[in-house]
Amino acid sequence: AKQKFKALGYDRVYVEPVQFKTWERRHESGAIVGANPQPLSLTALGGTVGTNGAMEAEVVEFATIDALKAAKEGSLTGKIAYVSNRMERFKDGHGYGPAVKARSGASVAASKGAIAYIIRSIGTDHDRMPHTGMQRYTDGVKQIPAAALSNPDADQVSRLLKLGAPVRVKLDL
Q1: 10 Å Cβ neighbour count for 65?
Q2: How do residues 12-36 score in pLDDT, each as one tens digit?
Q3: Which of 118, 128, 126, 104 is nearest to 171 (CA)?
Q4: Is the pLDDT assigned to residue 108 strictly greater than 90?
Q5: Would strands 80-83 and 55-62 be described as parallel, antiparallel, or unpaired?
Q6: DSSP class of residue 34?
Q7: Rounded to whole angstroms, what are the CA distances from 98 to 37, 95, 108?
């Protein structure tokens, strides 16, 4: 670029060093384990910490991020918090704002004792292609792994939880 600008005749061309934080996506996998085993299509949320090897825990579902915020301190100790709210489809896209709030939940879940955080993908599709997006951690709160499930897989986790038996998920991010 520097050479090109000089070739174009610019008289003051210089380069400045720039530093910025980067995050690299590596491997990601998940599965329902136990009585109803099934691989899950998921993707790590941007900026998440990894699981440091595979982890497995019981899932606790919350209909919205606000329901997670209302959970008692310590009520999720050793569990995976799951926010299942579905993005509503509107021609003007205004369903995105309420749904995307779920991406801010990893620190909330950690403050309640959760060891990981999963959400329904923020999208209105019906395929098994999960959507990622950026999430950030709150300073001073333990950082836990965070991922988004494809919509059909989120539906399956919710269906199994409605049957009343515990649902365990294995994550490796």
Answers
A1: 21
A2: 999 999 998 888 889 999 999 998 8
A3: 118
A4: yes
A5: parallel
A6: S
A7: 31, 6, 17
